[in-house]
TrEMBL record:
Coiled coil: none annotated. Keywords: Membrane, Transmembrane, Transmembrane helix. InterPro entries: CCB3/YggT (IPR003425). Pfam families: CCB3_YggT. This is YggT family protein. GO terms for cellular component: membrane. It comes from Sideroxyarcus emersonii. The keyword Ligase does not apply. The chain crosses the membrane at residues 6-25, 66-85, 106-127, 160-180. It comes from the Bacteria. Signal peptide: none annotated. The keyword Membrane applies.
Length: 188
């Protein structure tokens, strides 16, 4: 009972916070406008930690390394706590395996974030194309969609590039990321 409760709290609070930090990192990297209700909400949720860490961790190569480091740390804590709740025998602390698993999980979460933003942009383009979220979603998805749009012409005014990108994301999740995850699990 206690294990299930702790597992629920970890899944409901800690890992989503890592995903929010990772989205903020990607949004800054892709120069997505955050002046919209969702962007401001995400900034307000993460400012307390990000702004403090930025004092010590400067940006590198125009990337928000403080936010990425925080996302890595939160996911690392989540995975360590997850192992503990699942009854993992910590005979020796599996630092290398946990670090590698964290990196793979962040890659996996990044792909899921792309899928979610693609889905949100597609749905909002049908129901409310002028929503304040549209510029943010466009900025996040454009670098991934633009190469496909230049190669895949619309069929009957329907843009198939989103569907193709969905399939590519699923393929990446199943084959390379799935293989990496299996390899990393052997390190634990």
């Amino acid at each position: 009972m206690l294990g299930e409760t702790l597992s629920f709290l970890l899944d409901a609070l800690v890992q989503p916070f890592a995903a929010i930090l990772l989205f903020r990192f990607h949004a800054v990297w892709l120069r997505a406008p955050m002046r919209n209700p969702i962007g401001e909400f995400l900034m307000a949720l993460t400012d307390f930690a990000v702004l403090r860490l930025r004092r010590f961790v400067p940006a590198a190569w125009k990337l928000d390394t403080a936010t990425l480091l925080l996302a890595f740390a939160v996911e690392f804590i989540y995975l360590g706590a997850y192992l503990w709740v699942q009854g993992y025998a910590f005979d020796s602390f599996p630092l290398a395996g946990l670090l590698a698993w964290t990196a793979v999980k962040l890659l996996k979460i990044s792909i899921y974030l792309l899928i979610v933003t693609l889905l949100a942009e597609a749905i909002l383009s049908w129901v409310n194309p002028h929503t304040p979220l549209a510029p943010m979603l466009f900025a996040v998805n454009r670098p991934f969609l633009q190469p496909l749009r230049s190669r895949i012409p619309p069929v009957g005014n329907v843009d198939l590039s989103v569907l193709v990108l969905f399939l590519i994301c699923q393929f990446i999740l199943i084959v390379p990321v799935g293989g990496l995850e299996q390899a990393v699990m052997r390190l634990l």
